[in-house]
Amino acid sequence: MQKDTAVFSLIQKELERQRRGIELIASENFASLQTIQAMGNVMTNKYAEGYPGRRYYGGCEVVDESEQLAIDRLKQIFNIEYANVQPHSGAQANAAVMLAVLQPGDPILGLDLSMGGHLTHGSSVNFSGKLYQPHFYGVKKETGTVDYDMLEAKAKEVKPKLIVCGASAYSRDWDYVRIRKVADEVGALIMADIAHPAGLIAKKLLNDPFEHCHIVTSTTHKTLRGPRGGIIMVRKDGENPLGLKDNKGNVRMMSNVLDMALFPGTQGGPLEHIIAAKAIAFGEILTEEFTVYAKQIISNAQAMAKALRDKNYNSISDGTDNHLLLIDLRNKNISGKKAEQVLGKADITVNKNMVPFDDKSAFVTSGIRVGVPAVTTRGMKEEHMQFIVDCMDDCLTHADDEAYLSNVKKKVNEFMQQFPLYPELG
Ligand code: DSN
Predict the structure, then answer these.
(1) Which part of the chain is CATH 3.90.1150.10?
(2) 47 part of the active site
(3) Atom 6 in ligand 1: which residue has the minimum CA distance?
(4) Of 12, 108, 183, 359, whose Cβ has the fewest other Cβ atoms within 10 Å?
(5) 193 catalytic per annotation
(6) Residue 70: its H or E element
């Protein structure tokens, strides 16, 4: 068959874009070359509905081994009893958990999307807000940190069946002990969605959600630096305070209920080629090299927070415990949308993001979200954060000067040559 040059030339173009730019999207990262190569393998040809050792197709003996390896490595990373590595994405993982533990119309309580939450935590445009009855807590206006008093008051008022913690634009750690206390009082389960900080939690650099939250979900491609995908995890498999039942009415272990909810509940055949790549990434996370990487993420984020503060940029909660910062641009007289466009012209990639109590819409926004996992993978250290912030500030203060922006872009492209990306790909 003829090589599809149309698509392969676009893949090459995307590689060049990634190489020359400063990637600050907090949810993105650069998977290792072996992880990427493993995604394009013959396991994509295999149907394997079911789980290792109990499939609905023949010929699964090899993918059984590979999926089991992914499961075992993931269990080792987080010291847990149950892991499901089949979710195609974080959204699929969350959908399966909700199917497992909720009935349609049940109340759920999550962090408001406009305050840093996630679509799948009850947004009205998402399945989670359409199938269930969503309620929200927020952050405090004065501090930008989660308002746990509000969470408690809301929980007592609406008696959620599920409390969701975790966020996509929140730079502080979580008080899982407090959330568990509330959950126990109102008889709720807790799902912690750790998609963003999972790599830092894996290395014990942040509070441990597994001790206090009944179910934990994540993506695998953010701070975990693996292939695109999702996972579902439980530390103590027997723990089932709501007495969850299977479709025959028997009370089951959490693992049984969750496995069934993922397949056949919400997904069909697992992507065994991606699961092989997950196994590779999980193996990398278990190394000491990844510990150094995770620590560097936090140091870089804090160096970036300082450099931004020095230039009078306000970040929500005035700093970070993790890998990201949410910058409120209202004192800089530029919208998030315009900032994203302007920085893009200099090959600095960020996303516009609403800030808590934003007066602009989600399409315009007053803020941008910046994260350092990807630039840390490129090899950057604290001292490089100053260069990035200087370039960002140069762009944002010359937002309508095309010639100036083009000069910053040249500087950025030259700077990035120090940090080769996939040199093996030529
Ligand atoms: N799209 C992810 C993020 O950027 O945080 C959330 O799903």
Answers:
(1) 295-425
(2) yes
(3) 168
(4) 359
(5) yes
(6) helix 61-78
User: CATH top-level class for 295-425?
Assistant: alpha beta
Q: Which of 191, 102, 190, 115 is nearest to 150 (CA)?
A: 115
Given 159, 178, 228, 345, the catalytic residue? 228
C-alpha distances in angstroms, 296 versus 164, 381, 385, 386?
Answer: 29, 7, 12, 15
Closest C-alpha to ligand 1, atom 2: 27
Helix (H, G, I), strand (E, B) or coil at 327: strand
pTM above 0.90, yes or no: yes
- Quick check: 224 and 199 in contact, CB under 8 A? yes
Q: What is the C-alpha radius of gyration for the chain, rounded to an integer number of angstroms?
A: 22
* Residue range(s) in the chain whose domain bears CATH number 3.40.640.10: 34-285
Residue 18, token pair as written in the block: 């990634």
What is the per-residue pLDDT across 266-315, written as a single tens digit (0 to 9) for each? 999 999 999 999 999 999 999 999 999 999 999 999 999 999 999 999 99
pLDDT in tens, 70-120: 999 999 999 999 999 999 999 999 999 999 999 999 999 999 999 999 999
Sole residue written with tokens 């049940």: 106
Q: Which residues line ligand 1 (CB under 6 A)?
A: 27, 90, 118, 168
**Domain 34-285's class?**
alpha beta
